Structures are given as C-alpha cells and as structure tokens.
Amino acid sequence: MSADAARRDPNPTDGIRRLVNVVKVLKNLLWTLVLAVPPLFAALWSGATAIANGAFSPWSPQMIDMDVYRRTAEIFLVGGDIYNVPDELPFIYPPVAALLSLPFTWFELATTQQLWLVVNALFVIAMVHRLGLTGWRLSLASAAAILMIEPLRTTLGFGQVNIAMTALVFLDIVPGPRALDRLGLPRLPQGWLIGIATAIKLTPALFAVYLFFSGKVKPALVAFGSFCVATVVGFAFLPQASMTFWTRLLEGDSGINTGLKYFTNQSVIGNYIRFSKENPDQIPSEGLLLAVLVGAVGLAAAILWERNGHRTFAVTLCGFTTLMMSPISWSHHFIWFLPLIALALRDSDLPKPLRIVAIGYGIWGAHAPFNEFGDYYVYEKPLDEFELTPLSLLVDAGSMIICIAMFVLAFGYGLVERRRQGYGWLPLTLRATEKKRAGFEARESDDAEADAAGAAEQDSLAGRNPADEKPDSDADTKPAAPRGTGR
Questions:
Q1: Cα–Cα distance for residue pair 407/321, rounded to 1 Å
Q2: How much is the CA Rg of the chain, to the nearest whole Å?
Q3: Is 60 helix (H, G, I), strand (E, B) or coil?
Q4: pLDDT computed for residue 309 by the predictor
Q5: Residue/partner pairs of 224-230 with CB below 8 Å, 24 or more apart
Q6: Taking a C-beta distance cutoff of 8 angstroms, is the pair 468, 137 a contact?
C-alpha cells in the first residue's frame, strides 16, 4: 500500500486507542476531583468555624490574620507605612511578605478567604502525598488532619501562613512522590523554597544551617541565595519599611514582644517568662540562652538522623527546633505535628520508644489542652499568666517539655544508630568513607532522577499506590548498611 493510500485508510485501532486514552484521562481527572472534595470541604469548614463567632453558612469566618495581610497590601499600594498602624494588629513580617500579600487584594473578601483556604488544603494534600499516600487514603488522611490537628484547624481559622511556610520547606527537601513531575516541568534547585520561606518569616533559616552541617552544602547555599534575592526585592520596592524592619529586629524588637508571655506561646522563651515572671515585654538573656541550648540539641538530633538516612524525620525534628528557638511560637505554628504523627504511625524503622513519645506528643499537640486556660479564640476572658498555678504552668509548658524529651531521645538513639551502622559517634565531617558506605554519593548525584522515578511509579493522585502498604515513608533515603552490621 502506498503512503497516500495509508493516509486515506488509517488503522482504526489507532483511533480506538486514542479514545480509550482520553476516556482514561477524564476518568482519572473526575476521580481526582471527587477525592479532593473531603479535604477541601474540611478546609472551608475549619476556616469558617474554628474561631469563635465564625460560621460556614452564612459565610462569616473570623480570619483576622488574613485581614492583616490584606490591609498591609492595601497600605503598600497607596504608599503608606506598613509598620505603623495604630490600634490594629501589627504586620510583623519582612517587607517582601507585603509584596506577596498583593493577591489578597485582587478579589472580594469572601472570595479571597475561600481561595486561600483552598490553597492551604492543597498544601496539606501535597505534604500527605509526599509522605506516600495516594487515592482515598490521601483524601481521608488530609481531611482528618485538617479537622483533628489543632494547629492546622486554627491556622485556617485565622487565615495564617503557617501551613504554607511548612509546606514550602517540606516539599523542598523531603523525598517522595511528586505530582508535578507528571507535567514534565523542570525542577528548580533544592533549597530555593527554603530561602523564600526564610525571607517571609525568618525562622526557616535554621533549615539552611541543618542542610549545611548535614553535608548538603549546595542546597544550603541555594537557600541563602534565594533569601538574599527576595530580601533585595523587598528593599527595592519598600526601602524605608525594610530599614525599619531590619533595624528594629537588630535591636531585639520582633514587633510583637508584648505577646511573649501569652499562654499559647509555646516556645522556650515564652515558657521561661511565665515560670520566671521576668519582664514580659522583652526577651530575657537567660531565656534566650536556654532556647539556644534546646535548639542545639534539636539541631544535632536532626543532623544525626539525616546522616543516618532518615531525612523526613530529620526535617521534622528541625521544624520543631525552629519552634522551640523562636521567641514566639503560637500553638497554631506547630504544623510539624502533621508529618510527626504520620512518621510515628508508619515508620517502623524508628526506635519504638521514640515512636511512642512522638505519638504521645502528636496527641498532645492535636488537642492543645492548654487552650482551656482561657478563651483563646475570643480573647474575652482576661488571663494573667503570672497567676497560673504551678500545675497549670506545667500543663502550659507540656508542649515544650515533651518536645525537649523527644530531642534528647532522638539524639541518643541517633548516636546508637550510627554505632550500629559502624560509623563514628559524632558526624563532625562527612568523611569520604562514610559517604561511600552510606550511598550518599550516588544519592546526591541522582537525587532528582530517583525522586522522579518514584513519582512515575505512582498511578496518579487518584490511583492505588503499592507504597501505601510500606510502613516506612523514608525508605528511599535509608543508607545501605555497611558490612558487619547484620542488616
């Protein structure tokens, strides 16, 4: 048959095959949309009702932090001073965050609120997917996390940025299936999202330190570079506000120091002020020193577990370290309970005592019992934290106490794990022999390809994932055991 005849008489099976493929794509898309309904509805419900006096129908949430972002963007557009708004909740982020708040002014308030809740729900879905869940498990787990974990629920109620900040870091450096790889989009260098998150909220800077001392120097430098670029952009568009923010910060003023002793501030410094009854309007040097010591233990534990091949757990430890070290860590900042609970339930390679502590900490954080001391959501019950009983102070400090216990336990087991693998006690340097034995060299060079291959093995966000039956979400980062360890 000639070529012209072949074109006039195409193979009918080709058309059938294309039709079947189109039907399959439409079926997967429809199933994905169905599975997205539970977490999206959970986010919209929580955003509308988590804060007192909010309602889902008629739509009337109390998203006071989103109101701050929207107001700040409007002040920027008219050339006002974003840090000088008397008798209003202050804007405490770096100036570049004001630029990123501009989309909050593009729509009517109700539409903006709903779109922001949808975006946050997608961030939660993305993190749970990165942990290895797909299909109906992904849908139900994401919805359950939003409804049952207090920091997630309250972040949505306030319209806060905590979920977004955690997701930027988590999706940047935690291995696992990546839905966007299916679109064939090129990956940007690891670490750049951490830099952007740091430019918005500063505390993620600790992740760059964690990466550097874990032997991942390039991502650490990329994080520093993207932070510098974003900060320069802030200076370019808001020079006076930038000078105000950074000068004030160097003088020890976070812009909200008056909230240091508030009972939902779960940081080391917040607890120290409540116990010591120090001046609640400034950071005490002793409390700062204690926060640094706790942070050092948490960071060391994170580095150990990264070197031992458990990157997701290491990143989670570093996330809690940022919360302990920050002067103010409201209870709704603790989004890291999401991966912690997932790891404690699914990662059988973690030591059992450590998993038990993590599960207990997750239950504590999901309930946040210290909120019973006052009406956290209405602010109508006056509470003097200096008048709390010793027992109440201990309950209020429960999050810090359990977190420190987790750091110490993780550090100890991290050392034991190193010895079990035949390494030196402390990973002061990433020696060539250790890299070779742990498989770091191959993983560093093939990191993107390995993650992409892992994603290709997933049928789709709506499909069945064989990895769901695997209890260890970190399996692809475990180093190969050296000879003689019995592994």
A1: 9
A2: 24
A3: strand
A4: 87
A5: 224/195, 225/192, 225/195, 226/191, 226/192, 226/193, 226/194, 226/195, 226/196, 226/199, 227/194, 227/195, 227/196, 227/198, 227/199, 228/195, 229/195, 230/96, 230/195, 230/196, 230/199, 230/200
A6: yes
Residues 6+ apart with CB under 8 A from 121: 39, 40, 42, 43, 44, 142, 146
Q: Which of 120, 116, 133, 121 is nearest to 179 (CA)?
A: 133
Secondary structure class of 55 (helix, strand, coil): strand
Max CA distance (Å), the chain: 95
Other CB atoms within 10 A of residue 164 CB: 18
| Alpha-carbon span 123 to 135, nearest angstrom | 16
What does DSSP assign to residue 439?
Answer: T
Q: Is 124 exposed, middle or buried (0-12, 13-18, 19+ CB in 10 A)?
A: buried
301 is written with which tokens? 């534990």
Whether residue 2 is predicted with pLDDT greater than 60 in this model: the reply is: no
CB atoms under 10 Å from CB of 127, counted, come to 22
The β-bridge partners of 55 are 60
Residue 242, CA distances (Å) to 199, 236, 468 in order? 12, 9, 47
C-beta separation of 297 from 404 below 8 A: yes
Q: Cis peptide before 58, with omega less than 30 degrees from 0?
A: yes
Beta bridge partners of 265: 330
* CA 266/CA 423 separation, integer angstroms: 36
CA angle 219, 405, 127 (to 5 degrees): 40
pLDDT bracket for residue 433 (50, 70, 90): very low
272 neighbors 287 (Cβ within 8 angstroms): yes
Considering only CA atoms, which of 43, 50, 183 is closest in space to residue 125? 43
pLDDT tens-digit profile of 206-228?
999 999 999 899 999 999 999 99
Question: Structure pTM?
Answer: 0.82
The DSSP string of 173-209 is H--S--GGGGGTPPPPPTTHHHHHHHHHHSTTHHHHH
Q: What tokens were used for 437?
A: 């034995």
- Average pLDDT, stretch 29-52? 89
Token representation of residue 296: 């050092």
Asked whether the CA dihedral 355, 359, 360, 364 is positive or negative, the reply is positive
What is the torsion angle, in degrees rounded to the nearest 10, for the CA atoms of residue 280, residue 282, residue 287 and residue 288? 160
Identify the helix (H) or strand (E) that includes residue 346: helix 337-346
| Pairwise CA distance, residues 98 & 86, whole Å | 18
Please write the tens of the pLDDT for every residue from 82-128: 888 877 888 889 999 999 999 999 999 999 999 999 999 999 999 99
